[in-house]
Amino acid sequence: MKAIVFHGVGDIRLEDVAEPRIEAPTDAVVRLSASAICGTDLHIIRGTLPGMKPGTILGHEGVGIVEEVGGNVRNLRDGDRVVIPSTVGCGYCSYCRAGYYACCDVANPNGPQAGTVYFGSPEDGGSLHGLQAERARIPFAGVGLVKLPEAVTDDQAIMLSDIFPTGYFAAILAEIKPGDTVAVWGCGPVGQFAVASCRLLGAGRIFAVDGVPSRLEMARAQGAEIVNYNEEDPVEVIQAMTGGIGVDRAIDAVGVDSEKPQRGPAARHLKKEERHFAEEVETVAPRQAGGSAFHPGNAPSLAVEWAIAALAKAGTLSIVGVYPEAMRFFPLGTAMGKNLTLKMGSCNHRRYIPHLLALVQSGVVDPTQILTQVEPLTDAIEAYKAFDQRQPGWMKVELEPILA
Ligand SMILES: NC(=O)c1ccc[n+]([C@@H]2O[C@H](COP(=O)([O-])OP(=O)(O)OC[C@H]3O[C@@H](n4cnc5c(N)ncnc54)[C@H](O)[C@@H]3O)[C@@H](O)[C@H]2O)c1
Ligand SMILES: [Zn+2]
Ligand SMILES: [Zn+2]
Known about the structure:
Blueprint: E1 2-8, E2 11-16, E3 28-37, H1 39-46, E4 62-69, E5 81-84, H2 94-97, E6 135-138, H3 141-144, E7 146-147, H4 154-157, H5 163-173, E8 181-185, H6 189-200, E9 205-210, H7 213-221, E10 225-228, H8 234-241, E11 247-252, H9 264-269, H10 274-284, H11 302-309, E12 311-319, H12 332-337, E13 341-344, H13 349-361, E14 371-376, H14 380-388, E15 396-400
Parallel strand pairs: 8-9, 8-11, 9-10, 11-12, 12-13, 14-15
Antiparallel strand pairs: 1-2, 3-4, 3-6, 3-15, 4-5, 5-7
The structure holds nicotinamide-adenine-dinucleotide (NAD) and zinc ion (ZN) (2 copies).
């Protein structure tokens, strides 16, 4: 079968790989009808999320048809149409039972202290093969997979695999209460769903910050007050528009590949931090790709720095943008001085999917507003490059496996 395979930093390929098979009685094999490209995949390919073994299939977002189940998958059968949660939990450890699927004690072959298990992951995520393929093996399938009603399309369901739950998780971590003023940093697919989720939880005002006009416009269409960091200093604007108080809640939907502004007042204000950011990049991305694509961000800590600077005293910072272990730069003193609450982590997808699926099915949310491209899996490398470069109009990219 065809799949997108990681070979090294900056090097991904469309290849023929072995078909997956049932390896444990709790496994299923799913034939993918849709997959997608995520910002997390970009971190892996840019070298800012290290530890990916060459030969691992990429991708952690998927929708498909169950083809085969192991003997201990009792709630599903072949032919069932399902959405695949990005993270994998066993369903029986104390963490999974409490809804912390991303903290599962059992699913990671590296042991209970290892990281969240997800499809298409580096070593500390379990090195599980990913979903940008024609088929995939799904561990603990009876726990993770969620059956889809016929009325929900693949284009809608693929958003429920990772990014809608993650945006919602970000809003939950941010402790959004009705009336709150929020700043969402980063208007990629995750940031868009963070905006949508803040609205669902009753936020009063939502600021959305990015440097890409087409992405900002999509946030504005959702009702967010947009700030382009290439035109204005986002911290100054947010302070000024909140009576000098700042926002109650902030969400980091950027992660380690955070960028410096290219021009404008914010670029001038950051001139003196140039050396500091260069050191950060050296630390988080010692190995980088040559060529024109898949370069790490040039200011790893900037989104968090700005988010903290624009928060009100006693506010809450929610971080869902991904950072690697090497990321040790954090404005702790400023956060301390403001009595901030910090919450962060990997989404517990399975916990939120049924609720969000109901919102989609009932028409409360149409997640396809965020979907801008549907490409055949065979064109995935070019699609990856366009998404990497944040080309105008390239927001969320769905991949359709072409089946023989
Ligand atoms: N925690 C989780 O479970 C989870 C799940 C999915 C994705 N993620 C992470 O969420 C993040 C966003 O994912 P995505 O798919 O939307 O990626 P993306 O790369 O498309 O989006 C990032 C956005 O941030 C913007 N940006 C860059 N520097 C910025 C800055 N200094 N200030 C404000 N905005 C800035 C970029 O222009 C881009 O639009 C990634 O880090 C991804 O790994 C986390
Ligand atoms: Zn993702
Ligand atoms: Zn578990």
